[in-house]
From TrEMBL:
InterPro entries documented for this protein: YTP1_C
RNA-binding found in the keyword field: no
PANTHER family, alphabetized: INTEGRAL MEMBRANE PROTEIN (AFU_ORTHOLOGUE AFUA_6G12730)-RELATED, PROTEIN YTP1
Domain Protein YTP1-like C-terminal: 136-249, 251-373
Transmembrane segments: 20-41, 48-68, 80-102, 123-148, 160-184, 252-267, 279-302, 314-331, 351-370
Coiled coil, from the record: none
Keywords: Membrane, Transmembrane, Transmembrane helix
Pfam families (alphabetical): Ytp1
Name of the protein this chain belongs to: Protein YTP1-like C-terminal domain-containing protein
Length: 406
């Protein structure tokens, strides 16, 4: 079996490091995401408390804790991410206090923030709440890399590529889920369809990828340059077609078809390690499945409509989940992580199962956040006059029954 001659890893302080990572997961990702939902639902006092707790933990972590590798050193990127999260959390708390109307900070201490309008403060606070969650995601993903001493020297570029592209798929899966679950987006009468924005984003990404994956005219072409540049070309070409076909609010198959071609290309990438080739192949299969399901949803289930009024079919959750799973698989497909799998004497199927389990948990987390937002906004939007009307109607019925009895 591949990797049988590799030495088994020798973990040090595994229990304490695992506990530290779980605390970081809870207090720098899950708690900020919940507080972000509370901010958007205008439950500001609870959001302020959660953001204060998260900021306090960030300070403690930066000052007293770290994610050291086997040599007792935490890489600069992980450390820098922790400092960035701490600073952004502190700024978010300041805007949270102003937004909630708290008198804790004096106007002189707030400086220019005190002179900002209420609408501007609300927008900045919401934007910071989202950004803090995204930085928390990076922090949680960087911690295991720092602990294992991955992504140094020649491996840095590959790690960055896998992390950025994988995270992009995960978070675009969240966008798909949000548009599906929240009635504001699902039943929107916006003049442009979602596929128009998908196509625009793919076109822009394709242009960037085409001209950044290879230093044109300055270095010879290699196998990887051809693969990534070709992927950029098909994305901007397909993106332009998708923008044209989705004009006037029409639905389009093009973004989903681009996912299918991307998945097929990734499944055909031959890697140095057999386990890496198989994990990349699974990533491609899942991405192709997500694209095919998206076309089926648009063309056959919805028949080019925006949604089924008042209903969400269970089938409709599949495309967004496939995006999340493919993103997690790609994030976990870099060379050093898969070498660790071999050193643990595991195979690709076991690794894929564990990673897919993580994708299930991430998708559950996303849906719970959306469910929480719906419940909070539904409660806050209840019209009290409707209760008064129901009460009057009940009184009228009782009056009529009394007349009949007499």
């Amino acid at each position: 079996m591949e990797g049988d001659d590799l030495p088994s890893p020798q973990p040090t302080h595994a229990a304490s490091k695992t506990f530290h990572w779980i605390m970081t997961l809870g207090l720098t990702l899950i708690l900020p995401s919940i507080s972000g939902v509370l901010v958007f639902a205008e439950r500001l006092h609870a959001a302020v408390i959660f953001q204060l707790v998260s900021a306090a933990y960030a300070v403690v972590e930066v000052v007293f804790l770290s994610f050291p590798d086997g040599d007792g050193v935490e890489n600069r990127t992980s450390r820098g991410t922790g400092v960035t999260f701490m600073l952004m959390s502190a700024v978010t708390v300041v805007f949270a206090l102003v937004h909630s109307g708290s008198k804790v900070l004096q106007p002189k201490a707030m400086g220019r923030i005190a002179h900002m309008g209420e609408r501007s403060v609300r927008i900045v606070h919401r934007a910071l709440s989202v950004l803090v969650t995204l930085v928390g995601w990076v922090r949680v993903c960087m911690a295991p890399i720092a602990l294992f001493g991955f992504c140094r020297d020649k491996h840095t570029g590959q790690c960055i590529a896998h992390g950025i592209m994988g995270s992009a798929f995960v978070w675009y899966g969240f966008v798909y889920a949000m548009v599906l679950v929240l009635p504001y987006f699902r039943e929107s009468s916006h003049p442009r369809s979602q596929e128009f924005y998908d196509s625009t984003l793919m076109m822009v990404w394709g242009v960037v990828n085409t001209f950044t994956e290879h230093r044109w005219g300055k270095e010879p072409w290699n196998h990887g340059d051809y693969q990534h540049t070709a992927m950029g070309i098909i994305w901007w070409c397909g993106g332009l077609l998708g923008m044209f076909l989705s004009r006037g609010g029409r639905r389009s198959f093009v973004p989903a078809l681009l996912l299918i071609y991307t998945g097929w290309a990734m499944s055909e990438h031959v890697q140095m390690l057999q386990v890496s080739t198989k994990v990349h192949a699974m990533f491609g299969i899942v991405l192709m499945t997500g694209g095919a399901l998206r076309i089926m949803e648009i063309s056959f289930l919805l028949r080019d409509e925006r949604s089924i009024p008042g209903r969400i079919m269970s089938f409709q959750y599949l495309p967004s989940f496939c995006l999340v799973e493919s993103g997690v698989l790609f994030m976990g497909a870099n060379e050093e992580q898969l070498e660790l799998v071999l050193r643990l004497h595991a195979d690709h199927s076991s690794y894929i199962m564990v990673v897919t389990g993580g994708a299930f948990m991430i998708y559950l987390w996303m849906l719970l956040l959306l469910e929480l937002y719906q419940r909070l906004t539904l409660t806050s939007n209840i019209n009290l006059s409707s209760y008064a009307a129901l009460e009057r109607e009940a009184d009228a019925r009782e009056f009529e029954l009394d007349d009949i009895e007499e």
